[in-house]
Every structure is written in structure tokens, then in C-alpha cells.
Design brief:
Elements: E1 10-11, E2 46-47, H1 59-67, E3 70-74, E4 77-78, E5 82-84, E6 91-92, H2 94-105, E7 113-117, H3 123-128, E8 134-135, H4 143-146, E9 150-158, E10 160-165, E11 181-185, H5 189-194, E12 202-206, H6 209-217, E13 223-227, H7 228-237, E14 242-244, E15 252-258, H8 263-278, H9 281-288
Parallel strand pairs: 3-7, 3-8, 11-12, 11-13
Antiparallel strand pairs: 1-2, 4-5, 5-6, 9-15, 10-13, 10-14
Length: 306
């Protein structure tokens, strides 16, 4: 396996219209230091320089090279994380940019990416049947899934958290939701966690997180719970109105799913992640996407190599 190093990354200016939440520096719901998104000093997404001459003894990679494109699985309904604009069909968000960064290191331009929306319930099927070359979409690494697919990463350590209204000071973590109305989607892991008697919450179960967020904005519920990465996207979408509490109460390490037997590709993706983390590209991606929620950047966990 040989993955050639790409040239130094250039920065392309991206005008971002969202505005950050105010508050103390560095706490959940606050704006990144010195940055006012939408202004001239707004965070900019990096421009990925495509590596040349990449050669990998990977069946997935070889098939992609033969067809002339990568097929990447992602979510399409998570703002600032994995989102597809229905009018333009353009993808945006933290997971989308991580996927593009990796593609560039594998030698594929953005125009050589075919995006495929894959829901959580069909991820293992899509990967094992070769419907996608790799998948980036709030995909928690666990032993049950590792028996079915391979994972590179983790590239982000998520955890169940709480989204509340910006002016709400009564909810400071999971231990302060007794008697509060907390919304999540039916069957979700965070919902099952917050329903435990130790928290004492009154739960509302809906079909979509966006519906929960709407009920939070209209004061029908007091909080929304799911992975903090997803909540950060909604906070960024509603600047000045919502904030993430910043007290995760589960651990959800996100990985990049791919064919279980393709260790060469897994190593190459891990190398691409490692490079992006070390040269600062990863941090730039975060600050221009999930960072717009105001939640301060933290370094990702150590990569697993197996």
C-alpha cells in the first residue's frame, strides 16, 4: 500500500450566513474565539488538494478507480453535519467535509464523488453489499457492528447531550431534568437512557429530531436529547435561540464504515484522518461546520488500528 502525501492545503473563503451564539468564551453554546460567523473573519472550509499517483492493493479502491468515482454513503437530514439541500442537491456539513478530505487523499476530486443517502437502519447492508465504498454519517463504532463491517477512526467522540433554549439556565445536565419535558425520536439510544428513573424526565417521542427541535422552540418541551454532534447542528441552525448544554452522558465514537475485509482501505483512510488531524485541516472543518454552534473545538480521540 502506498498513499502519497498531498501538497500543503490552501484555504478557500466560504461566506457563512449563520451567526454564532454569545456567552462566555469556551463553554457550550458560545462562539469560537474571535469569530463572528457571517463576518469577514468567519471560519473558512479548507480546499482539499487531490493526491496524485495513489496506488492501493484494495478491491474497493480498484473498483472505484475503474468506475472513475467514489460512492460515499452519508446522511442528508442533519444540519451542519450531513445535509443535502433539496433545491441544489449540494451536500454540506462536518461528516460531508471529512468524507471529502479522505477522498482527496485517495486521489479523487469532489466531482468524482457520488453521494448516496443511507439511513441508519440500512448502513450495514449498504456496506456489506458494496453499495457504497465507505460511509460517513454519525456511525458509532461498537463490537456488534465491528462483526459486520470495518471501521476507520474514530474521528469524533460524540455523546448523548441536551439541547435547550438559549435563555434556559435551569437545565445544566442530565441530572437536572427531573420533571422536565425531554424530546427524542422513537427507539433512539438517548431516549432509552433519559427514560431511566434516575433522571425523572417526562419524555416525548416523535418521528424526527427536527420535530423535537420545533417543539423546543415553541416551548412545548424543555429539551431535546440525542448525540451532541447532531444537537450542535441544530444549535448552529438556530443561532441565539438554542444551545447545547455540553454535559455528555454516553460515549459514541464515530467511525467510517467500509468493507470488513478491506484492511488496506481501512489503513489508508486512517492515514488520511491522521494527516488531516495533524496538519489542522480537521480543526478547520470543525470550526466551519459544527463549530458554528459555539461549542469549542476539542481534539478527536486516538485512532484505532486493527
Amino acid at each position: 500500500m502506498k498513499l502519497r502525501k498531498s501538497a500543503a492545503l490552501a484555504v478557500a473563503v466560504l461566506a457563512l450566513s449563520a451567526t454564532a451564539c454569545g456567552g462566555k468564551e469556551g463553554s457550550a453554546g458560545d462562539k469560537p474565539a474571535g469569530v463572528q460567523p457571517g463576518a469577514t473573519n468567519a471560519p473558512a472550509l479548507p480546499k482539499y488538494v487531490v493526491a496524485t499517483g495513489v496506488s492501493l492493493d484494495s478491491p474497493t479502491f480498484k473498483a472505484a478507480k475503474e468506475r472513475g468515482k467514489l460512492i460515499i454513503g452519508s446522511k442528508a437530514d442533519q444540519p451542519y453535519l450531513g445535509f443535502e439541500d433539496q433545491a441544489t442537491k449540494k451536500r454540506s456539513g462536518f461528516d460531508v467535509e471529512i468524507a471529502k478530505m479522505i477522498a482527496a487523499e485517495l486521489g479523487f476530486t469532489e466531482s468524482q464523488i457520488e453521494w448516496k443517502t443511507v439511513d441508519s437502519s440500512t448502513r450495514e447492508t449498504a456496506i456489506s453489499k458494496g453499495q457504497v465504498d465507505y460511509y460517513v454519517g454519525t456511525y458509532t463504532i461498537n463490537d456488534k457492528r465491528k462483526a459486520l463491517v470495518g471501521f476507520a477512526g474514530p474521528y469524533y467522540k460524540a455523546g448523548a447531550d441536551l439541547l435547550v433554549r438559549k435563555d434556559d439556565t435551569s437545565i445544566t445536565g442530565p441530572d437536572s431534568v427531573k420533571g422536565k419535558k425531554v424530546c427524542s425520536i422513537t427507539g433512539s439510544t438517548p431516549l432509552q437512557e433519559i427514560k431511566k428513573p434516575q433522571y425523572g424526565a417526562q419524555t416525548t417521542e416523535l418521528g424526527k429530531y427536527s420535530d423535537c427541535v420545533q417543539q423546543l422552540l415553541t416551548k412545548q418541551v424543555d429539551a431535546v436529547t440525542t448525540d451532541d454532534a447532531i444537537l450542535k447542528g441544530y444549535a448552529a441552525q438556530n443561532p441565539g435561540k438554542l444551545k447545547v448544554v455540553g454535559k455528555p452522558f454516553t460515549q459514541e465514537p464515530y467511525g467510517i464504515g467500509m468493507n470488513k475485509e478491506d484492511k488496506v482501505l481501512r489503513d489508508a483512510v486512517n492515514n488520511a484522518l491522521d494527516k488531516g488531524i495533524k496538519d489542522g485541516t480537521y480543526k478547520k472543518i470543525y470550526e466551519a461546520t459544527l463549530g458554528l454552534s459555539g461549542s469549542a473545538y476539542t481534539a478527536p480521540p486516538a485512532l484505532e488500528r486493527y
